[in-house]
From TrEMBL, chain A:
GO terms for cellular component: ATP-binding cassette (ABC) transporter complex. PANTHER family: L-CYSTINE TRANSPORT SYSTEM PERMEASE PROTEIN TCYL, MEMBRANE COMPONENT OF AMINO ACID ABC TRANSPORTER. This is Amino acid ABC transporter permease. The keyword Magnesium does not apply.
UniProtKB/TrEMBL annotation, chain B:
It comes from Gluconacetobacter takamatsuzukensis. Residues 2-236 form the ABC transporter domain. PROSITE patterns: ABC_TRANSPORTER_1 (PS00211), ABC_TRANSPORTER_2 (PS50893). This is Amino acid ABC transporter ATP-binding protein. It is a peripheral membrane protein.
Length: 218, 242
C-alpha cells in the first residue's frame, strides 16, 4: 500500500510560474503608477495654484489616501458590478491603485511646489516671464525634482499593495505564492521566496531611482 | 525715464507708501536710503509691477505700467532687478540661468542665447563659471550671476535691492565693482542700500524714504553732507558712528 501525499512537491516549472506572476505584479504596478502620476501631477498643481480647487478636491484626496486599499477595492468592485460594467481584475486594480497613486502624487506635488520660495518666482517674473512661463521653466522642474524621492516611496508602497488585487482573481506574486503554498505546504520556502522577490523588485527600483536622484542633484 | 507720481501702496490696512513722487533720469544712479521697514523694497517692486499700487501712476519711458495695451511682462524686460538673496535658479547652471529668460521670454534661438550668456557672464567676471551650479558659487559670485541674468534681457533700467546685505564683507567689493562698471557704461540704476560709502562715492542723487514718503531728495552733497531734516541727520549720524 502506497502512501500518497495530499500535496505535491515543488517543481522547477513553479519557478516559471512565480516569474510570470512577478511580471504580472510589475505590469499592474507600472500601469497604476503611470496612470496615477499622469493624473496626480496636474491635480497637485491645480491644488497648489487654486484655493478653490484645493477646497473642492480635498474630500476626494483625503478619503482615497486614508481608507485602506482593501476596502477601496471591494467598494470599486461592488460599484462596478452593480453598474453593469464588469471589469477584469487587472482593470479594477489599475483603477483603484491608480486613484490612490494620483491622490498621493497630487499631495507630493503640492508640497514640493509650495517648497519653491515665492521670492524665486518673483525673480523669474521680474525677468518678464508670464506666470505660465515661470511655471514651466522654474517652478515645475523644481517641484518635480523636489517631490521625486517621496514619489518613489509611494510607488514602492503601491507595488506591495498590488498584492491585494490577488483577492479578485488577478494571479500576481502574492496570489501565486498562496496557490503554490496550498499545493505544496512548503510555507517557509514558498512565502520566503515570494517575499525575497518583492524585496528584489523594490531594491532594483530604489537602486535605479537613487541614480536618477544623484544625477538630478549633480 | 521712470516717472513716479503720487504713488500709494498699502498691505491691507497699513499704508506703506503714502504719496511717493520721484523721477529717475536716463543714465543716473539714484540711491534710495531709509530706515528698515520704510518701504524701499516695496517701492522698487512697485516700479516693475511685482507689487500692485493702490493709487498714483508709474510711467516707464512714457508708458503707464498699469496700461491695458502694454503687457507688464513686456515692460519688465526693460527693467532688470537684483535681489538681496540672489535668487539664482538652483536647477540650472550659471550659463543656463543667464540664457533662460532670453530663450523663454524673448524667444532668442538657443545657440544665440548661450553665446550671449557667455558674454554676459564674462562681463561680470564669471567667464570661467559657466558650467557651475549656483550652490557651488560663493555669495558674491551668485550675486554677480543674478546681475548677469538681469542684464541678459538688455534692460534700460536696473533695480538693486540691498544686493550686498547678505554677503560676507570680503565679497562685497566684487559686487560693488560690477555695479560701478554698469554705471560707467551708462546704465540707469536705482539702488537701495545701507552702504553709505557706496552712496557717497557712486550716487548721482540720493532719496531718503521715511514713513512712506520721500523726505529728502537731491545730490549727495545736499542730502548726505547738508541734510535739512532731523530724521535724516539722525539716520546719518547713527550710520557713521556704527
Ligand atoms: N507682503 C507684505 N504683506 C504685508 N506687509 C508687508 C509685505 N511686504 C512688506 N510689508 C511691510 O511693508 C513695510 C515696508 O517693507 P519693505 O520691505 O518695503 O521695507 P524696506 O524699506 O525694504 O526695509 P528693509 O531695509 O528692512 O529691507 C514693512 O513694515 C513690512 O512689514
Ligand atoms: Mg528691503
Amino acid at each position: 500500500m502506497h502512501y500518497t501525499a495530499a500535496w505535491q512537491q515543488l517543481h522547477w516549472s513553479d519557478a516559471t510560474y512565480v516569474l510570470m506572476a512577478s511580471v504580472r505584479t510589475l505590469q499592474l504596478s507600472f500601469t497604476a503608477v503611470l496612470l496615477g502620476t499622469l493624473l496626480g501631477i496636474p491635480l497637485g498643481l491645480a491644488r497648489a495654484l487654486s484655493p478653490v480647487m484645493r477646497v473642492l478636491t480635498a474630500p476626494l484626496v483625503d478619503v482615497v489616501r486614508s481608507v485602506p486599499m482593501i476596502i477601496q477595492l471591494i467598494i470599486f468592485d461592488t460599484c462596478l458590478s452593480i453598474s453593469g460594467w464588469p471589469l477584469s481584475a487587472f482593470q479594477l486594480g489599475t483603477l483603484a491603485l491608480g486613484a490612490w497613486m494620483a491622490m498621493v502624487t497630487a499631495e507630493i506635488v503640492r508640497g514640493a511646489y509650495e517648497a519653491v520660495t515665492p521670492s524665486l518666482r518673483r525673480a523669474a517674473r521680474s525677468l518678464g516671464m508670464s506666470s505660465w512661463q515661470e511655471l514651466r521653466v522654474v517652478s515645475l522642474p523644481l517641484t518635480l525634482r523636489g517631490g521625486f524621492p517621496a514619489w518613489v516611496g509611494a510607488a514602492l508602497c503601491l507595488v506591495k499593495d498590488s498584492a491585494l488585487v490577488g483577492i479578485f482573481g488577478y494571479i500576481e506574486l502574492t496570489k501565486a505564492g498562496q496557490i503554490l503554498n496550498a499545493r505544496t505546504h512548503r510555507t517557509f520556502l514558498v512565502l520566503g521566496g515570494i517575499g525575497a522577490t518583492y524585496f528584489f523588485i523594490c531594491h532594483v527600483i530604489t537602486f535605479c531611482t537613487r541614480r536618477i536622484e544623484r544625477r538630478m542633484a549633480e | 525715464m521712470i516717472e513716479i507720481r503720487n504713488v500709494r501702496k498699502s498691505f491691507g490696512e497699513t499704508t506703506i507708501l503714502d504719496g511717493i513722487s520721484l523721477d529717475v533720469h536716463q543714465g543716473e544712479l539714484l540711491c534710495l536710503i531709509g530706515g528698515s521697514g520704510s518701504g524701499k523694497s516695496t517701492l522698487l517692486q512697485c516700479i516693475n509691477g511685482l507689487e500692485p499700487i493702490q493709487g498714483g501712476e508709474i510711467h516707464v519711458d512714457g508708458v503707464d505700467i498699469r496700461s491695458k495695451s502694454v503687457s507688464i511682462n513686456h515692460l519688465r524686460r526693460k527693467i532688470g532687478m537684483v535681489f538681496q538673496q540672489y535668487e539664482a535658479f538652483p536647477h540650472l547652471t550659471a550659463l543656463e540661468n543667464v540664457a533662460l529668460a532670453p530663450r523663454v521670454v524673448a524667444r532668442v534661438p538657443r545657440r544665440q542665447a548661450l553665446e550671449d550668456a557667455h558674454r554676459h557672464l564674462a562681463h561680470v567676471g564669471l567667464g570661467d563659471k559657466a558650467a557651475s551650479y549656483p550652490r557651488n558659487l560663493s555669495g558674491g559670485q551668485q550675486q554677480r550671476l543674478a546681475i548677469a541674468r538681469a542684464l541678459a534681457m538688455e534692460p534700460r533700467y536696473m533695480l538693486f535691492d540691498e544686493v550686498t546685505s547678505a554677503l560676507d564683507p570680503e565679497l562685497v567689493a566684487e559686487v560693488l565693482d560690477t555695479m560701478r562698471t554698469l554705471k560707467r557704461e551708462g546704465m540707469t540704476m536705482v539702488v537701495v542700500t545701507h552702504d553709505m560709502d557706496f552712496v557717497r562715492e557712486s550716487a548721482d542723487r540720493v532719496a531718503f524714504l521715511s514713513k512712506g514718503t520721500i523726505c529728502e531728495i537731491g545730490s549727495v552733497q545736499q542730502v548726505m553732507l547738508d541734510p535739512q531734516t532731523d530724521i535724516v541727520r539722525k539716520f546719518l549720524s547713527r550710520r557713521s558712528s556704527s
